[in-house]
Design brief:
Layout: H1 3-25, H2 29-89, H3 94-113, E1 116-118, E2 133-138, E3 149-154, E4 157-159, E5 162-165, E6 168-172
Parallel strand pairs: 2-6
Antiparallel strand pairs: 1-4, 3-6, 4-5
Length: about 170
């Protein structure tokens, strides 16, 4: 074999390897379909996650909007309770007491329909820093009340599972 034939043979080998490498680089139709299917599934999953996330955010937004309103209305509720306590002492203002009581009950019922609940706190309950806010400590009237709630100064409220105002209590020392 001459040099020219060897060079032609080498060129043919190079051409064949280039053709073979080009064939392996180009994906087949099945591979393209699989890639597109994978892209589609990932995009679909991402969109589903987006929908769930925005739904949760919307629900949380409604809860916080209610929370702001409830927090603003709680002092009004406290004022009604104080007014009712003082009106009970006055026997001449029976009609006034009935009117104020009706308005108070209507307000409480409306707030309860929107998810507001009182935090149940009584004298003698064990103090829990997660649930109660201690205003002060006083000497306990009896040994049973040491470390327990002696008085409830301000009622606490929760909206759903979240406490929006902690009950303010006095603890026995």
């Amino acid at each position: 074999m001459g040099k020219k034939e060897e060079i032609k043979e080498e060129e043919n080998i190079v051409d064949e390897t280039q053709e073979t490498s080009q064939e392996t680089i180009e994906p087949t139709t099945e591979e393209l379909v699989e890639q597109e299917k994978d892209k589609y599934l990932r995009l679909f999953a991402e969109f589903e996650n987006y929908k769930k996330r925005t739904s949760k955010e919307r629900i949380e937004l409604f809860r916080t909007a209610n929370q702001e309103l409830m927090t603003v209305l709680l002092p009004v509720l406290d004022d009604f309770e104080r007014a009712l306590m003082h009106i009970e002492d006055d026997k001449e203002a029976e009609e006034l007491r009935k009117g104020v009581l009706l308005i108070y009950q209507k307000l409480v019922k409306t707030l309860e329909q929107k998810g507001l609940e009182k935090v149940d706190v009584k004298k003698g309950d064990t103090f829990d820093a997660e649930v109660h806010e201690a205003i002060t400590q006083i000497p306990a009237p009896s040994k049973k009340l040491v470390g327990k709630i002696v008085d409830v100064v301000e009622q606490g409220y929760k909206l759903g599972d979240k406490i929006i105002r902690f009950p303010k209590v006095v603890i026995g020392q």
